[in-house]
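Our collaborator T.R. sent over the components below with a one-line note: 'Predict the complex.' Nothing else. No constraints on interfaces, no templates requested, no preferences about which chain binds where. So this is a plain run: every listed entity goes in together, and whatever single assembly comes back becomes the starting point for the next discussion.
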Amino acid sequence: MRKSTIPFLLINFFLVVVLSSCASNVVKGYTKVPLEKKIVAVPYFSNSDTDYVYKANISVYGNELTGIFIAKKINEATHRVVFTTEFGNKLLDFEISENDFKVNSIAEELDRKILINTLKNDFRLLLRKQYLIEEQFENTTDEVYQSREGNMYNFLFVSKTNEKQYKIVHSSRTKEKISISFDSENNIFAERVVIQHKNIKLKIELNYLQSKSN
Amino acid sequence: MQIKTYLVVFLTAVISLASFAQEQKMSVSEINSFKQSVAVVSKKIKTLSTDFVQYKHMDFLSKDIETSGKMIFKEPSLLLWQYKRPYSYSVIFKSGKILINDEGKKKSVDIGNSKMFGKINKLIVGSVSGDMFDDKEFTISYFKTKGNNITRFIPKDAKLKKYIRQIELTFDKEEATVEQVKLIESSEDYTRIVLKNKTINAKIDDSVFTN
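Returned assembly:
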């Protein structure tokens, strides 16, 4: 009994050491620095007066799907997210917050649990207004803020030159799962957003349709 | 200032009430003569081209999403639906195929004898030409206002009904042609398409319908 326990403990210890040293795979080459702030806000979908309307190109395992992506903050915690065809018919309609999720409607062809869950996670990451920060890193060009979410991590990349948040990476201890990149002129509204999955062949590109003043 | 606001609200309410009141059900004889005049016009249509502005209305948005472009139809079943603003995206219905051009990215989808797409094609052409008084497919009701005739179509097909609860066509009374198409999805959401600069029977080359 005792004989088998010791190697087991050793392996466990070894795993913990190895895994924690891999925690920052995404920030490999970056230097850990003292934490400057505990909360980092993401502005790109946070204004409840703005209709966020984008032309969407989704490529999934070689198939292309296009349409219009619409997001709107409908109360302090919740966003409404709708995807329509170019002709205007609705393919999906979600209400999404950090803790709740509701499908208002979904086209029969898209009504698959795995797809709904993937989009739910993507949109949640995209629409989240702020992150609690536990570690901070930097290199010559970027500040990187690490936030923890259960056993997953989110890394927020901010350019030092123009202070723009240009990327969020959702990652496990060792592997990058999703990266969301933002192109923004004014650091408030993103003209272009790309959601790129690393473990499945899924990429969602959003290019804005309407003026941000709408 | 406040009185002014009240006045505006009051006037708006009165005007909208008035426009409701203006809409009347057609009588049986009116329906027959209206259907006949639409049939006469749509029978004459060999080609049709029109500009359109599409307003996607969703109740939770502060503003409708506006897109615009051109639609061209040629007998018997060639159809181009082309968005030009704010993006370029076109769809061509052509002998069992849908040709899509998305900002230069081209794609062709074989629809073969898909009944659903057949219906959609018929629906688009019917909506624009006005010739869709098919009692088998729709429950139809007829209304009139001062300048327009309005028809409302409720699909009978359960599958189609899932996407479109009701189609509303607004006709110019004089010309008996369609001015506006409204596709109603739910009580809160609809797509309104306004047709402008209609040209009937101009010469249109088949090459227009190539991707």
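Summary for T.R.: Residues 151 and 172 of chain A are 7 Å apart (CA to CA).
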